[in-house]
């Protein structure tokens, strides 16, 4: 029987703990926990503790432990904290907030480059946002190089690899104040980046692939088009200097259904992220930010969000009107009234006119961007 065992080594102030959990039929059970005092990884007592604990765990699960997750508390003296502040007026609500966040990230990266030789890990642990001005105080948390080197050497002795190092503080939030929860969502390069704020603290950042290639493959299979032709059906400007046969007919209703299904999948992934943070979607106020040179109006996230009345706030934007406007324009001006079909060539011509009207300068553009 295949077992899934996750092993964690926690370092908190002067305490070290090794824990393990095992997955059984979608449920997770803790199967091992052992603690000891901690000074450093070069200390013989700590080495012996790690060695004995891993051997004991391996005997219990009857398998070799190959990887271990390291969680380090910000209360330990092995962490260095530097605080950076940034302030920018909010001229256009969520968009300006995101633009300021980009500037702030650049500021962080510049600071990191100066400290590159000394630092092993970086992580943002706190953010404060105000309504009229975006004021962000970020703490840059870094792991001392000696701590990291000693840890690697110790685990090598027991032939265990480091799967990942994270701040222990990230995993101590079981439930946040739902009334103060705000999420920022960014669509970029076929991915959705989800940042969750609660009580004015950034508690979650996660990126998911929206699966554009899956959408292209679906269209390719449905309309029996080649992958290249399917891509060009969506990536409009990418084909402006290429010619394709105009005898390929696409049913407008089928195309619209596929695109809508694509956004429904995005919705489900977004809701899944909310649930992972134990927040009811009633409490979430979503803000969606588009590309810098494009204008977006994200007003609804299909049926389930409307049912919960989540988007009553005037600042809430989700699911692009761009795609709705494009499909509507195509249905009115391109689809032949007698056949209710459109050719690939006519789709491309009409789409270019629509995009040019909107003064979009991108050379490579997908419908949902």
UniProtKB/TrEMBL annotation:
Keywords: Coiled coil. The keyword Coiled coil applies. Residues 98-125 form a coiled coil. The keyword Coiled coil applies. This is Cell division protein FtsA. The lineage of its organism: Bacteria, Bacillati, Mycoplasmatota, Mycoplasmoidales, Metamycoplasmataceae.
